[in-house]
Amino acid sequence: MLERLRYLRLLAWCGPVFLFVFIVFWGLMGHNIPPFQPDVPAKVIGDYFRADANLIRLGMSMAMSFTVLYFMWGLSIAKVIEYGIEKDNNILSTLALWGAGLTVVPIMVSCVFWLAGAYRPEALDDAILQLLYDTAWLLIDMGYMVTTVQMISMGVAFLQDKRAVPLVPKWLAWYGIWVGFSFVAEVLMPFFKSGIFARSGTLNFWVEFFLWFFWIVFVTTYLFSAIKRLEAEARGETAQSRDTAAAGVGKAAGASA
Amino acid sequence: MSALFALPITRAWLALVIATLMVFALVENDAPARLATVAIVLIASFKVRLVFLYFMELASGAMPWRLVAEIWMGAVTLLIVGAYLITPA
Amino acid sequence: MRPPEATADARAEDTHSLTGQRKLVGDEGVWFFISADISMFALFFLLFMVERYKAAALFEQSRRLLDPALGVLNTLILLSSSWLVALAVHSARAGQREAVRRYLTLGMLVGAGFAVTKIYEYWHKISSGITLLTNDFFMFYFALTGLHFLHFAVGMGVLAVCLAKSRSDAMDEHFVVWIESSGCYWHMVDLLWIVLFPMLYLLHAA
């Protein structure tokens, strides 16, 4: 059973790599931490695309290339749930897996809109550039539910761990469930061009994104220790089954003696 | 029936109802606005305390959650009363 | 071995651990969730009071369009519903299945009154042309009470699950922890409204 854990650690490392790329290329190069306030004039957005075209092209092409790593990280978690916790069915691990995979969609696709704005900005109206910027943010924010599904199914699964010391502590399971629910506030984002519910607002940007960031960090930490523990359990089982087989042989030998 | 009313949670509920009616009375009369409003917020704080200590049974300790509750109550009360008092009319 | 009646009474108030110190009511994970949730609301309270400071006249003018009587009614409804659910928890500790079901059902029925009042309030405002886009005050009013209402709805769902479990589950320690946790969540919904009501409806500009 040790064999099926083989690639999990590699997959788990995809999480930190994704986070690094996301912050540096999408966030800093893409001028998304925080995004432009929705009520700035279109000219500000237009000027931004024209002035920083190459930086945006680099940022977004790298971001798009590495987004899939979030899915790979999610696969590692789903497998830990499947091999380590689930008994009767694999519904929660499947939800967690698809949630992670589908999260790639709003992130990757929204990047193409920023990229498109930076591709030939000199040929486009400020209003068009603003539309591209707005579309990207609407997609990345309003796609929240796929990530919520991932977070809640993970939390519910972790809570079902029957070990004396669970693979993932209860507080982190609940934290994920709570953050997953809190994303619902994004529903208000399309209605506001300023204030706490706007895309750049205290709630819908700063709070929500930081909550998600810390969740990824905490989960990854426990993911590595969970993989280690599952490997130890697998080795323990292997030793046990070897002993049982040896005892069986010994018994047979003794019986025939 | 009397056993029901002897319970701490029932007595807490009665206190909560009375406190709520007191708030309503303060709303309806012509007491000076600032005083009445601060009183209302302090009564609300007292009510939250009753819910934490009796309904959620934090009265006898259960750390660190008792501490979390106390800090939250203190911070929220201070925030609302303080911000209210420094806000210009 | 204690005689049966004494066991029932002892279990009824047996929220003490072996050392005599009262243990936490409900599952610790739920308390983490509750702490996170009330912290989020505290942030909302802060944001509201900051905006109120910046636009006191507008907030006062808008506040007067709200009906405090409905707010008081909602408070009394949630308080009573909380009390009934607390009684259900108390009954669960004593292993009294029928009492648990009775109090949970009553608690949910009374709680449902909150939904009726809220929906009426919202309908009344919206049909008068006031929505969450009307001004900053009403943005907070609808967003905060809306978010609270969402919590209320989830709470009703949680209580419904408890009711279903009380039908078939054994009245054991596991069930007690479940109903205690659900109760704590419900009390959180109650206490959040206790703060929201005066903050939104009753801060009379001096």
Which tags fit this structure?
heterotrimer; A: 257 residues; mainly alpha; 9 helices; B: 89 residues; 4 helices; flat
Q: Please state the structural category of chain A.
A: mainly alpha
Number of domains of chain A: 1
Major sheet characteristics of chain C: none
Percentage beta strand of chain C: under 5%
Look at the structure and give the CATH class of the domain at 68-206 in chain C.
Answer: Mainly Alpha
Task: Reconstruct the topology from this structure.
The complex is a heterotrimer of chains A (257), B (89) and C (206).
Chain A: H1 8-29, H2 42-51, H3 53-66, H4 68-84, H5 91-119, H6 126-142, H7 144-159, H8 170-182, H9 202-256
Chain B: H1 2-6, H2 8-28, H3 33-55, H4 65-86
Helix pairs in contact in B: 2-3, 3-4
Chain C: H1 4-12, H2 28-54, H3 56-63, H4 68-93, H5 97-127, H6 136-168, H7 173-202
Task: Write structural notes for this entry.
The complex is a heterotrimer of chains A (257), B (89) and C (206). Chain A has one domain (3-235). Chain A has 9 helices and no strands. Chain A has helices at residues 8-29, 42-51, 53-66, 68-84, 91-119, 126-142, 144-159, 170-182, 202-256. Chain A is elongated, with a radius of gyration of 23 Å. The two termini of chain A are 34 Å apart. The mean pLDDT of chain A is 94. Chain B has one domain (2-86). Chain B is flat and about 45 Å long. In chain B, helix 2 (8-28) packs antiparallel against helix 3 and helix 3 (33-55) packs antiparallel against helix 4. Chain B is mainly α and 89 residues long. The longest helix of chain B is centred in the middle third of the chain and has 23 residues, at 33-55. Chain C is mainly α. Chain C has a domain at 68-206: Cytochrome c oxidase, subunit III, four-helix bundle (Four Helix Bundle (Hemerythrin (Met), subunit A)). Helix content of chain C is 80%, strand content 0%. Chain C contains 7 helices and no strands. In chain C, helix 2 (28-54) crosses helix 3. The longest helix of chain C has 33 residues, at 136-168. The relative contact order of chain C is 0.16. At the B-C interface, helix 2, helix 3 and helix 4 of B face helix 2, helix 4 and helix 7 of C.
